[in-house]
Amino acid sequence: MAPDAVFLNHRKLLWPVADRASFVRAYRLLAEQVPDLVTVARTVEVQGDVVLQAIDGTGHSPDGGQMQWPILVVAKHRAGRIVRFEGFDVEDAVAARRRFDELAAERPGATRVDNEATRIIARASEVWSSDAPYEALTAFYGEDVESIDRRTVVSAPPRRGHVAVVGDMRVVREMFPSIVARPIATRGERLVLCRTRLMSLDGLELSMLSISELDEVGRFARTVTFEDTDLARALDELDERYCAGEGATPASIARVAGDLVRVFNCRDWVAVEALVASDAVFVNHQVPSWPMHDRESFLVAMRLLVEQVPDVLSVMRTLDVQHDLVLSEMATTGQVPGGGEVAWHYHVVERFVAGRLVRFEHFDLENAASAQARFKELAAEDPRTPFIDNEAVRYVIRATWLWRTGIPHEQLESFYSEHAESIDRRSVVSAPPRRGRAAIASDGKAIGELFPTMTFAPLAVRGERLALARALLTSAEGFELTFLSVWELDASGLWSRTVTFDVTDLVGAVAELEERHRRLAGDAYTNIDRHLADFAAVYSRGDRAAVETFLAPGLMSTDHRHIGYGTLDRDGMLAWFESRSQTALSMTVLNTKIHVTERVSLVAGLVLGATQEGSSYEWCTAMVTVHDEQGRACTVDLFDAEQWADAVAVFHEQVARTDR
Fold first, then answer.
1. Does residue 391 fall inside a structural domain?
2. 650 shares its domain with 544
3. Residues 6+ apart with CB under 8 A from 157
4. For the chain, what is the domain count?
5. Backbone φ and ψ of 129, nearest 5°
6. Which of 311, 369, 297 is nearest to 343 (CA)?
């Protein structure tokens, strides 16, 4: 025991114990009165450095009478010594467990998992464990509440409706009048996963995991129960409910963040590697710092952790999503081979692009303020990025990734719209049109059996529902099949249309992408959208006369690239275009991502081609254009891809000057 240990006695029979000296005196006196005293810990529960024990003390007094002392003890340890000791009567199990949870949550810098759902759970638990009438509990439940039991040993049938669910609750409360719900993880304001313990008057305990979900007015709308050991499945359902409801807008980002934790816990290293971009950046703000700075060192660190702690498990306790960013508090726990328990609690800021982790920053638990500040700093960056990324890209890449990790065929069907269609416009080997969810999913299964390795490289996006990608399929024997694909999601976010082209038919694939964009945008499709699509097409054809119609009479173009043409007027631009057309055997301009205001566009572009001598070339650009009312270019500013920040600055300047 530590010299400055604190002792508190919450029992009705008070001991005169306040410090280490008085505690030792009290136990010496007890041993004198009961020479054969034996104490046995019936149950032991550990959270970090805090222990909850149910202890039975038995023995005989000098005159032969049998004596027994049952007690509940909550003790906090530091450096192998007790620094806090609190005793409770066994009848006060709820108070003891609540104190246990409170002390366990007092880790330096810890963020208490807290949202509206945890607060409602706390109030409902207090009412449950009090002498309040049954009717006081019914107000916590919505009219259409449902209860689902996913336990495998002892489970109840699904129950729906206020009368049925509350009726079941009344029966359970009569059997178990005390309840303690300890939050494990939250999502948004309306979801919480708890480890729940029900306690009877005779000491029987029933432990389980439970997800509670609130409705719009803060009443319980849904509860789902799992075995106490089924944490992975409970976390999966917690994430899925969040993505289907309150977190629907950032769902694709929330899902991939959860996927990364999930496959780490499954030790599926191939799946982990597939979720981390090759050029991902890792920054470790922890002290001492892990040697992580790139993808390879991150993957090595993860494998080393599992070697040292074979049963290590990570839990995303909290989740905050903004744009393509995630802020979470992680709890990673396990046991080293020697039997000691280890636990790490820390904060993570992550950025995901096109379904892959591209940035990972690690913070100590007590450095929560810095993690939050970094998250806000990154979230405040201009959302206009050059990344070829949207909902369609994230959706299809995740579906492919899930298929590679062994998703059942029936689950794969759920990614497709009921009226999905697949159209093959390849010229050499093509398939007939296919329509309907089952038919397309069946084709996907057959293709997957022939080509177990699939990769997709996004080339361009339009809005959130359209994407163009280059596909590479590889058989077990090493045979490769490449093609271009235009993907489309329906209004509900399901995969609804795929059109396939020869890998050499980029012009045809881009034309399909632009045409579908026109249709989906409807009245929102502007003259600028039309100008950008048509200009890229005529530029790629080398049609000087057509290019001229897209340039306003007073055009001025400034090239900020490291090797550029300087500043040209309209005639200079046309002359430059002619010279490029004469030296190039072919040239294709692809607008990979477009940001548009009323009069100004910011475009990330890709230029591909070949010279007369047979050399191929490819470069990425950024372009800011001010358009007139007909959509023609009045001013153009060109940048190299790595000058994107400069392009964004000019874009904002032009918007401030033009869009008034």
1. no
2. yes
3. 149
4. 5
5. -85, 0
6. 311
